[in-house]
Structure formats: structure tokens, C-alpha cells
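Team,

Forwarding the record for the chain on the shared tracking sheet. I've put the sequence and predicted structure together so nobody has to dig through attachments.
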Amino acid sequence: MPRRLKLSQNQQLNRNQSLSQKQFSRENRMPKSNLKTVYFSLLLAFICLLFPWSGFALKLRPDFLLLVIIFWLMRAPSLCNVGTAWVAGLLVDLATGGIFGQYALAYTVTAFFAVVYQRRLVLFNHTQQLLYVFLLLIISQITLLILKVFAGAEIWGWTYFLPSLTGTLLWRIAVAIGLNTGGRARGT
């Protein structure tokens, strides 16, 4: 009899733990995303990249496609991964007419760092995520800058990094509007 009682107490404890885990996962779970949504948003970001930007707006233009890739790497890493970033980078290389492979490499390196910290990133609050997104955008721009310098381009001033600032600002606006990045609401 005592063994049966002990067994039932263990079963009750396991059941309570599994119920609390289910409740925790329901509260923090983001809605499911499908592949069509991912590729449609990537296509829209690619179209925004192809708009005829000129003058100072061109210097301020954030990397829309990289921002969307970072979002999907955080939100649905099974649907958008480093390979997706590489293909998107190749498409940007073809569209911009620059050195073939520079955006592919920059997006791949950035996606790698986003994927490595993906599990921790969804636990960050919105301010911490904002800082991390800024660092990811800077990593991409530094990679592009190194490749362009090796190809013989001139080194630009601090205005070269303006797209990282505007991309971070765009990310903050999107989160404020209601974009669910999985970040915790505290400390926003």
C-alpha cells in the first residue's frame, strides 16, 4: 500500500509539472507561421530594397531584407535559416550589380550570429533585442565594408553606418506597433 501511495504522489507531481509547463508554453508561444508568409514578407522587403532611392535617403535606407531575415530567424528558425539568408544575399547581389557574393557573405555571417543566439534572444526584453539587432546590422555592414575595401573602394565616413541606425529605429517602431518578436515586455 505505501508503494502505491508513493507512486500516485509521484504521478500527481509529474502531472502538475507537465500542466504548468503546458500553461507556460501556451502563454509564451507565438502564433504559427507558414512558409508562404515568410517568403511573401521577404519578397516585400526585397521590393523595398529595389525602390529608386536617391540622395540622402539612399544613405539612410535600412537593409529591409536583412531586417526581415533577422525577424524570421528569431520567430521561425525552422522556416528561415542561414541558407535562406545566403540565397537572399545572392539575389541582392544580382539586383544591386555590385561584387557578386558580398551581400550573400554578409547576410550569411549575420544570420549565423542570429541563429547562434536565437534561443536566448527570444528571452531578451525589447530593449535588449533592439541592441542585439543593432549589433547584427553593424556586423553585416562591417563585413560589407571589409569586402568593398579589399575590392578597392574608398572608406566612407561615419555616414556609412547610418542604415544600421535607421534599421534599428525601424525595428523599434515595428515592435511598438505590435510586431511580435518573442521578447518579454519588461524593460521596453
